[in-house]
UniProtKB/TrEMBL annotation:
InterPro entries from the UniProt entry: GntR_C, TF_FadR/GntR_C, Tscrpt_reg_HTH_GntR, WH-like_DNA-bd_sf, WH_DNA-bd_sf
Name of the protein: FadR family transcriptional regulator
Pfam assignment, any one: FCD
Gene3D superfamilies linked to this entry: GntR ligand-binding domain-like (1.20.120.530), Winged helix-like DNA-binding domain superfamily/Winged helix DNA-binding domain (1.10.10.10)
GO MF terms held by the record: DNA binding; DNA-binding transcription factor activity
Length: 233
């Protein structure tokens, strides 16, 4: 196991260290139940102080990645304890060379929650929220026509975020906020090199505008079908 000494960046040193260790855990280079190097070894590898390293360990521990045991040392925890919805952990996942496995699993999460969110939005969206969806679907249509990936990703992201807010269910709103970083990355990756799925998005929009919860749910399931999502392969 080897770590490069850090070049000072804008982020705090202890965050850089935590990120580097987390990436090795996330990629499996350091496996669950494996003991990580000693405090002294890590300080020498990174070229940092013990104070900074201890802050890094606290950060990793708070995300469920590691735990320290007396007379044993610091071990990587099982994946079931990792806080995958932690916004900072999501950012670190995005920095991995192979983010595909995580994004594919994220598709499974979307399948579990988005159809019901669309159904609730059809029932509860306000006039202003429906107007916002109208603007976004129009922008998405223009982006798809021009094959403008950046504009599509931006508006597609806002489209789904607006649906979460439109559920009128307070538990969906923070969930949508927590997932927003990875969702943005997922939308960009799943559309790149594939089709924009404009008609599927329009079917969701039409159902919400008509107040048809069942149709909105079905349209969302269709959008998230494996055949429409390049990352599902």
């Amino acid at each position: 196991m080897h770590f490069e000494q850090l070049e000072l960046k804008s982020r705090k040193v202890y965050v850089q260290v935590a990120r580097d260790i987390a990436c090795k855990i996330l990629t499996g280079e350091i496996r669950p139940l494996e003991k990580i190097p000693s405090e002294l070894s890590l300080c020498q590898m990174f070229g940092i102080s013990r104070t900074a390293l201890r802050e890094s360990m606290k950060l990793l521990s708070a995300k469920g990645l590691i735990e320290s045991k007396p007379k044993v040392g610091t071990l990587v925890r099982q994946r079931t304890h990792w806080h995958f919805l932690d916004s900072q952990l999501i950012e670190w996942i995005q920095e991995l060379e192979n983010v595909h496995p995580f994004l594919s699993q994220f598709l499974g999460l979307r399948k579990a929650i988005e159809p019901e969110a669309c159904a609730l939005a059809a029932q509860n969206a306000t006039v202003e929220q429906r107007k916002q969806l109208s603007v976004l679907i129009q922008n998405m249509s223009i982006a798809a026509e021009k094959h403008d990936m950046d504009a599509w990703t931006l508006n597609d992201h806002e489209f789904h975020q607006t649906i979460f807010v439109s559920t009128a269910n307070q538990f969906y709103i923070p969930l949508g906020n927590i997932l927003s970083t990875l969702s943005h990355q997922f939308l960009a990756e799943s559309a790149q090199g594939g089709r924009f799925c404009l008609e599927e998005h329009r079917a969701i929009y039409d159902a919400i505008m008509a107040g048809n919860a069942d149709a909105a749910r079905r349209a969302s399931i269709e959008l998230l079908d494996d055949g429409n999502q390049r990352l599902s392969a």
